[in-house]
Design a protein that fits this description.
Blueprint (H helix, E strand, L loop, with lengths): L1 H6 L4 H5 L5 H16 L4 H8 L3 H12 L2 H13 L27 H6 L4 H10 L1
Helix pairs in contact: 3-5, 3-6, 4-5
Protein name: Chromosomal replication initiator DnaA C-terminal domain-containing protein
Pfam families: Bac_DnaA_C
InterPro entries: Chromosome_initiator_DnaA_CS, DnaA_C, Trp_repressor/repl_initiator
Length: 127
């Protein structure tokens, strides 16, 4: 993510944010594609960027169709360090998860969360 942000003259915070400008979305998509080329799963990348896996799929397909951006993503992926197989499971993005999002549910995941047992009882009483 840092390499993609630097290539586009922006910051990693912009890539994690909601900025929809062309520069931010291209940088974000290149970072997602580089992570995908590096072997991370769509859900792992989506969690890292606090997005849905279909957003990552759309971004990677868009970059695949644009040769200069595809080449940049491949170069960034090639420069990423190899992950030791014993410490990190296949497709995990543990090293690249920022502290603010690590272990916390994203906004979309919170909206989709199933209410706990105590909340269900309150919902039944309200009806």
């Amino acid at each position: 993510m840092v390499a993609a942000a630097e290539a586009f003259g922006t910051t990693p915070e912009v890539l994690l944010g909601a900025d929809l400008t062309r520069t931010a979305s291209d940088a974000r998509a290149v970072a997602m594609t580089a992570a995908r080329i590096h072997g991370h799963s769509l859900p792992a990348i989506a969690r890292h960027f606090d997005r849905d896996h279909t957003t990552v799929l759309h971004a990677t397909r868009r970059i695949e169709k644009t040769p200069p951006l595809r080449d940049l993503a491949a170069k960034i992926a090639a420069d990423l360090p190899k992950q030791p197989s014993s410490s990190i499971g296949a497709g995990d993005a543990i090293e690249y998860v920022p502290e603010r999002g690590h272990g916390a549910l994203g906004v979309r995941e919170q909206e989709r969360a199933i209410p706990g047992a105590s909340e269900r009882a309150q919902l039944r009483e309200a009806r």
